[in-house]
Each structure stands twice: as structure tokens, then as C-alpha cells.
Design goal:
The structure holds 2 protein chains of 2 kinds.
Chain A: E1 4-13, E2 16-26, E3 31-35, H1 42-49, E4 57-62, E5 65-66, H2 69-72, E6 75-78, H3 90-100, H4 105-118, H5 134-146, E7 152-156, H6 164-179, E8 183-188, H7 191-195, E9 200-205, E10 208-214, H8 215-222, E11 226-232, E12 244-247, E13 253-258, H9 264-274, E14 276-283, H10 287-295
Parallel strand pairs in A: 3-8, 3-9, 6-7, 7-8
Antiparallel strand pairs in A: 1-2, 1-4, 4-5, 9-10, 11-13, 11-14, 12-13
Chain B: H1 3-18, H2 21-50, E1 55-59, H3 65-71, E2 76-77, H4 84-92, E3 98-102, H5 104-107, E4 114-117, H6 122-144, H7 149-210, H8 214-218, H9 223-261, H10 265-268, H11 271-280, H12 290-317, H13 325-347, H14 352-359, H15 364-374, H16 379-407, H17 417-425
Parallel strand pairs in B: 1-2, 1-3
Antiparallel strand pairs in B: 3-4
Helix pairs in contact in B: 1-9, 2-9, 2-11, 7-9, 7-12, 7-13, 7-15, 9-12, 9-16, 12-15, 12-16, 13-14, 13-15, 14-15
Classes of the chains: A alpha/beta, B mainly alpha.
Amino acid sequence: MQAISIESVSKVFGAFKAVDNVSFDVRPGCIYGVLGPNGAGKTTTIRMINYITIPDQGVITINGVKAGRQTQEIIGYLPEERGLYKKMKVGEQLIYLARLKGMKLNDARASLKFWLERFDAYGWIDKEVSELSKGMQQKIQFIATIAHDPQICIFDEPFSGLDPINSELLKEVILELKAKGKTILFATHRMEQVEQMCDDICLFNRGKVILEGNLSQIKRSFGRNTVNLEFEGDGSFLNDLEGVRINNKSVNFAEIRLLNGIDEQEILKAALRHVRVMKYEFVQPSLNEIFISSVGTDNVPKAEPLS
Amino acid sequence: MDFNKFFLVFKREYFSRLKSKTFILTTLLAPVGFLLIFLIPIAISSLSSERERVVYVVDETGTIDHRLVQANPGLYRIPDTTNMDVLRGEVMSRKVDAYIYITESVITNTGSPELVYGGAGGLMFIQGIRSDIQSAVRTELLDRSDVNPEVREIFNKRVSLQTSKLTETGEEETDTTALFIVGLVFGIVIYAAMFIYGAIIMRSVIEEKSSRIIEVITSAVKPLELLLGKVIGVGALGMTQFLIWIIAISGIGAVAGMFMLGTTPDAATGEALEQAAASGVSFSIPDIGIELWIGLLVFFLLGYLIYSALFAAVGSAVESETDSQQLTLPISIPIIIAMLLINHVASDPDSTLSVVSSMFPLFTPMLMPVRMAVLDVPLWQVLGSIVLMALTFIVLMWLSARIYRVGMLMYGKKAGFRELARWIRYSE
């Protein structure tokens, strides 16, 4: 039985098809990445899984049960739009939220103590949220998501707005949750974060899932066709190369996708003629590259560039 | 509808507000305001009753003046002089309030007496003088015609009959005025309560949106449970506040009564207040029966529920309090219309307009208690309006929940009425 199963789900807002006949399954105990640019339908899908909105068509089941009030209680949800009651004390607030998710008062107290200690935040229990720094609030928000010990955790853009230290802490905790057998789904438009953590992924574009499956299998199927080049000097020669697509270009780095059977040695030769090559690597494509190849350049929304 | 979740929301709304500084402050300061509202009319009426009015009577015929003095020795006086300039000067310098000049033609009914006054006293004052002169002139005429005593007695009886009828209408008038004022006070209290507590609910809904906690909450609670928890929680808060005030005011009344009357506090409780009110205020509070009190309470509570559901809907539709004004204005319109209708309903409680408007759920809380005070409203109308209000509340809560479901996820979109109608029709 799948932890989350989405079958031919559609959701329309007026004339706008936010989610268009989407299907994917999330295996229990794995980390699943829902990827795609902003406005691709990720958040709407997640809201439907959380029974905040209801699909126009299709069925969503959680552990085999149709998404509804009961399934809400086994999910912990960290929305993209974060927030807490500003005037409420940390402890009271966490207990309130855990109890709304169906937890008993005593269990909620114990769980809150455990997680506040895990995040090194037990001293804040009697502080109002408005007294805390932004980073502290993020931690409390995260605890609020998982305090009721949900089997399934859903994080929408979990790393946005986090400083590097908290990002690292969050990553650790997510991996701990996985080790405890929890199922984790997160949505992000920052592909590189997902590559390090996800078992399975699906790629969203314009309301549709364009690619779905095991991450390493997907990468393998795209083959080794990407060159990572680190260099010193004037990188303008890259613009003159033919039969390639250049991603992630910066002053001293470029990710170069080879098209139409171009020999990678030609790239190296060209690079040696123009710049000092510091590193030359022949690798599997990045998720970013996979996304672009899958949707075709013309289909990538221009207004919201990929990171 | 999960009762546990509703109860959790209710408890949070109630206790977090109960402990807030705003609640403590308003609870402490409002009785001071009440006390001022209560004391100012008493102070004004005791100030104005201190001064007795004086009217000089200048009578060329010498037949009317002593009758007037006899009728009201405190008011009418015969001046030492008949010099008009001197009298005018005294009126101008406010030594006397007025003087009357009576000539023979007044008695023979071809002329009118002349009243010259300094502008103080008002309509009641002038009417009083007019009726005094009328009866004095009438008696004089009866004397002059040498009417035999039997006829005179008949005449006197008629006159006294007429006077008693006059007082009767006077009493009636006071009665309706009192009821009208009770209705108006009730309307104002409802209006204030709706807007103060309704706005708390609205702000509470908006706060959850602006602090972005809303998605966390709605992934656990249904909009209906959430909104109902808020409405009932804030309602309980309001009841608590009123209870504290009632206890505080009767406590203050008891202490004040102890000082004023020098009696023991238990004897003075309440009674002292009532006495003070009766002596100070110019009308007596009409006798309000127990059914009316229950009616007031029921209609007040249902009215609160209906209007707070409306405020919850507005809160669901907008993103910030500044955006809410366009939508809160229409909520105040039915309350204002109801207050305009109070006069008509109090004076003609059986008319079709009164019956229909008092049964209209948005008007009922203001108008039905007034009708119940003035006449025995048929039971079917009372029960019918209660049922109508309850239904209205349910429908409004349902609408609010629907608006909430759509509105909560529409950040940065302003909702007009057309947009709201779409949200209500919008299928989930």
C-alpha cells in the first residue's frame, strides 16, 4: 500500500487549470521530492493531499484511506506560507496545534518537550512567539509540524528563509524522521537541494507531471552527457560553442549539456584555447538539466527562472 | 463537525483573550464610562430643578392676576410696578423669566394675552402658562355671567374631566417616551456590542491570515469549527465582561448606597440605585416583566450570533483590516434602519410594518423587544422570529465557512461583492 497515492487528480480555478490529470505514488518510508517552477501546481497538489482543498476530479488516498478529516491527523504539514500566533506562548501554541491534530494533552506535552530539547529551544517555552528571532520562529514552526508524531510529513519549500545552520539542522532532522520510518514529501523549486536527499521525485510543469520515478534511475536514463567545467579567465568563448546548452553559468563555472552527439573532447579543446581549465568533469545531468530537457526550453516559464 | 476541535478553538479564543491586556483594560475602564453616562443626566436634572421660575402678571382688569397667584403661588407674582420698561429690564436681566400682560379684551375673548419671556423655559413652560390663564379666564367669565351654582358645578366637572383626560394623554406620552428610550438604549447597546465583539471576531480571522498560520490551522480544523469556535468564544468573553460589570456596578451601588443612606449594604443593594434613578431621571423606568427580560436576553444573544457571523464572513473575505471597511459598512445598515424604525414600532406596534420588520431577522434583536414591551406579542410571532433568527444564523455561518474556504488561500486579492458571490457559488 502506498503512503500517498494520487490518481488522475485535476483542480481548476476559474479558467486556470492549476493541476491537470496528475498521478503519482509515494512509497512508505521514503523521501519524495515534488519539483518544478513556481506556479506549476505543487502547492495546490499538496493542499489537496492535506484536505485543505478538494480535487475537482480524481482520488487521493493516504495509507489507502481517501483524503479527509481522518487522514489530516496522520499528516504533518509545513506550508510555504509560514506563521504562528504572535501573542501566544511557544509551549501553549505547540500544545494547541498538536491537540488540533488529535493528540492527547499528555502526549502533546511529552512530544513538545522532546522536540524543543532536540532543537535546543526548551528555554523558549514560556516566551511569546513575537519575542523570538526569525530563525527561532522557524524552528518552532517546524516543531509545530511534527509535534503530533505524524506518519507522513509534508514540507512545502522547507528551506526557504532558513540560514545555513538551520538548513543543516532541518536536513538532519528530516533524515532522522526517515530513519524512524516516516514518509516525507517535500516540494521545492530549488532542485539542487533535492538531489542530495530524495529517493523518488516527480517533476511538475504547468499543472502536469512530466516525469516521475526513482531519482537515480531517472538520472541514469539521461546518461552521461553533461560537462562541468571550472576555469579561470574570460568565459565568453562558451557563447560561441555549437551543439551545446549551457546551464548554471557563472564567472568561473559552467554546466554544459551536450546535444546532437557532440564529442565532449571538442569542448575541452575549445576551453584550453581560451581559458585556464581548473576542473573538467564528465557527469550525469543535474535535475535542473533534466527538467529543462524534459519540458523543452520553450516550455519553461520565462517569468520565473529556475534557480 | 468535530466537537473536540470546536471546543479547542473555543477555549483558545476565550482564555487567550481573557488574559490579554486589552480585555483587562476595557473591563476596568468601561464602568467608569457607564458611571459617567449614569451620573451626568442626574447632575443635569438636579442642576436645572434648583432654580424656580417666576412670571410677573400685569393685569389691567385686576381679576385674573390673583386667580393665577392662587393657582401657583411659586410661579406667578404680581409686580410692584406696571411700567413696561422696568418689567422688560427685569426679564432681560433674568431676574424674572417672563411677564404676562392681560387686558379686558382677553376676558371678553377678542384679544390674546401677551407673554414676554427671556427665551428660557421652553415649550412646556409656555403651555403651562397658557392652560393656567385659560382656566383663570374661564372662571372669571363664569363669575361675571353669574351662572347659578349647579351649572357652574357641571361646568367645573367638565373642566376637571377635560384636565384628567389631558393628564392621561400626558402619562401615555411619558410611557411611550420611556419605552422608546428603553428601545433606543437597547438598540445602541446591541449596536455597540455587535461592532465591538464582531470586530474582535473579524480581526481574529484576519490575524490568522496575515500571520499566515491559516494553512496550519485549516489542515487540522474545518472552517465551520474554527469560525463557530471564534464566535462562541468571543461571545462567552462578552458575557464574562458584562457579568463582571453587572457585579461591579451593583457593588459600587451598594457601597454608594451605604454612604448616601447610611444603611447596611444589603438593604441598600439595588434599591438605592433604583431610587437614585427614579428621583434623578425625569421618567420612571417602565415595568419590565420577566418574559421581557428573557426575550431581551434571547434576542440579544441571537442578534449577536447573526451579526458576528456576518463579521466572520467579512474577515474571511479580506486580507487586512483596512480592506474590511467596504464590507463592514453594509452590516451597519440594517442596524441603523432598525433604529429608525424603533419610533414607529413603539407607537404603532400592531401595524403590518411593525410586525413584518420585527420578524425580519436582522431587525428582530432591536425591534421585537420594543414590541414585547408595548404589547403582548402573539406567541407565534415571538417563536417564529426566534426560529427565523436561528435559521439565519445557520445559513450565515455556512456562507461564512464557504467564503472562508476560498478566501483564505487568496492572498493579495481584494474581494468585492461580485467576487464574494462567486466564492459562495464556487464548488470545492
